[in-house]
Design goal:
about 200 residues; mainly beta; Cathepsin D, subunit A, domain 1; ten-stranded mixed sheet; about 10% helix; globular; Peptidase_aspartic_dom_sf
């Protein structure tokens, strides 16, 4: 599965899911020689809208811990039913937004500059998977939502209480996600920088 993004006339970023099933397509879009070690995962038995697997921590570009997760964490695979790209309790979301150099205003988190401004170097974070021997990197551009007035609203949200962190597919925007719902395993590999032929997922 791959996520791809586009920005429409209203400066809204959308991230869509695409599924490929043939080995030739894997080679076309993914660095297969850099695939991670498979790790155990728990899938939604009926729809496969969600998958749950163990995440160790969120780290910054230098490997410093931003949020220690150390538990099974839910990832939304189907953009039509996902909420925000990252959502959770206020304490964790505040740590993430600070590490991204994001600002908060009333009910939104945002970055300076427009979402599609490639001249701006966004702060990078990573989801660290010790058992998979990989860190999934993402930055503010992967969380982009709506651009206006020289700001970029990003898709993160905080809840009161002890809500655990949850993630949407666009956090994995720079990676291929391989999954086997029968063996209950997933793996990752870095994605090649090339245009994706749009194709829908029929796993739902």
């Amino acid at each position: 599965m791959l996520s791809y993004e586009y920005i429409d006339d209203y400066a809204i970023y959308d991230f869509f899911d695409n599924c490929f099933y043939e080995e030739e397509e894997f080679e076309e879009y993914c660095f297969m020689d850099k695939m991670s070690t498979p790790i155990n995962a728990k899938f939604d038995d009926e729809t496969l809208f969600d998958v749950e697997f163990f995440v160790d921590e969120i780290v910054d570009i230098e490997g410093n811990t931003i949020v220690n997760i150390s538990r099974n964490t839910n990832f939304c695979l189907y953009h039509m039913v996902c909420g925000k790209t990252i959502q959770g309790n206020t304490k964790d979301i505040t740590k993430i937004s600070n590490a991204l150099n994001a600002h908060y205003d009333i009910s939104r988190y945002y970055l300076d500059g427009l979402c599609n401004d490639t001249k701006i170097k966004r702060s990078q974070l990573g989801l660290k998977f010790n058992d998979a021997n990989i860190t999934i990197n993402f930055d503010g551009s992967d969380l982009a939502g709506y651009s206006h007035d020289n700001i970029c609203e990003i898709e993160i949200w905080d809840w009161n209480g002890d809500e655990q962190l949850e993630f949407g597919l666009s956090v994995l925007n720079n990676y291929c996600l391989f999954f086997d719902s029968i063996l209950q395993q997933i793996a990752f590999s870095p994605r090649k920088k090339k245009e994706i032929k749009s194709t829908s997922c029929n796993i739902y």
